[in-house]
Amino acid sequence: MSASLIDFICASLVMGLGIGTDVAIATVLRAKQLYSFRRAMFWIIGVSLTHTLFPMIGYLFTYFSIQAIPLLTPIVGLVAFVCISHFLWQEISELNQPPADDNRQLIVSLSLILAVSWDALWSGPAKSAQVVDWSTLMIWSSFAFVGLLVLVIAVSSWLAGHWIMRTKQQSLIPLATPIALWFQYSIIGYFGLLALLRYTFALTISWWQLLLVSAFIIAAILNFRYLQIRPRKTAT
Questions:
Q1: For residue 105, what pLDDT is reported?
Q2: How many C-beta neighbours within 10 Å does residue 223 have?
Q3: Could you tell me where the DSSP H helices lie in the chain?
Q4: Do 87 and 189 meet the contact criterion of CB atoms below 8 Å apart?
Q5: What is the pTM of this model?
Q6: 84 contacts 197 by C-beta, under 8 angstroms
Q7: For the residues 44-73, what does the mean pLDDT come to?
Q8: What are the CA-CA distances from residue 7 to residues 2, 76, 79, 100, 153 (Å)?
Q9: What number of CA atoms fall less than 13 Å from residue 104's CA on the CB side?
Q10: How far, in Å, CA of 219 to CA of 78, rounded?
């Protein structure tokens, strides 16, 4: 297997798992609401399509911006990094806050699908930094690859959610959620660092090294955040 093909598979897997983790969490948590086949298919097809099209939209916007005005390249990297950092800051800051409206949050609707899929939109600009030196066929194939991976994740999570509800193993959810969030945020952070280093500073670092750096930083931030949350829970 050639090095470029290995890079393609690894990069596509990293992106698909990163933007698909929130789909897995949301699907498992909404297992009760996805009891009918019709609702489940609406949810699964919806998140799979948005997680295929949103990165494509973000990538095309970035690609044509850089092609039209090459001087924008460092700015694009900085903007992608800032947007991803802001997204992560909001997500981590709201870890201990309950949903504003529980009934509304649990309704399977287009707005909910879009809410789960927003992180896939910003992954487009970061992806354009990831696919340097790729052929056109590999670039477009990667979007389909990621979409299919998200589809598999959504179906697997739906089945897992039903198994959890049927066997009354709901206690598994709070145990697995922090690990899943760490995994998701680490990959999201990886894309932010990748865009910043490759576009803004014109530096090339191995993807696995950058992923390890992101994982370490996210682990430290989450650990600090959970230490802040814990006293509030014990005091109530």
A1: 40
A2: 12
A3: 3-29, 37-68, 73-93, 102-105, 110-130, 136-166, 172-195, 207-235
A4: no
A5: 0.70
A6: no
A7: 80
A8: 9, 23, 25, 42, 21
A9: 6
A10: 23
pLDDT of residue 75: 85
For residue 55, the one-letter residue type is P
One-letter amino acid of 168? K
Question: Mean per-residue pLDDT for 4-31?
Answer: 82
16 token code pair = 């698909």
Contact 45, 113 (CB under 8 A): no
The structure tokens listed for 105 are: 């949050």
Tokens of 154: 């959504």
**In this structure, which amino acid lies at residue 221?**
I
| CA distance linking residue 132 with residue 190, whole number of Å | 16
Residue 199 is given by DSSP the state I
pLDDT number for residue 229: 65
Cβ-contact 57, 114 below 8 angstroms: no
Task: State how far the Cα of 149 lies from the Cα of 140, in Å rounded to an integer.
Answer: 15
120-168 tens-digit pLDDT: 666 666 666 666 667 778 888 888 898 899 999 999 999 988 888 777 6
Tokens at residue 64, please? 């044509």
End-to-end CA distance of the chain: 57
Query: Would you say 186 and 208 are in contact if contact means Cβ atoms under 8 Å apart?
Result: no
Average predicted confidence (pLDDT) for the chain: 77
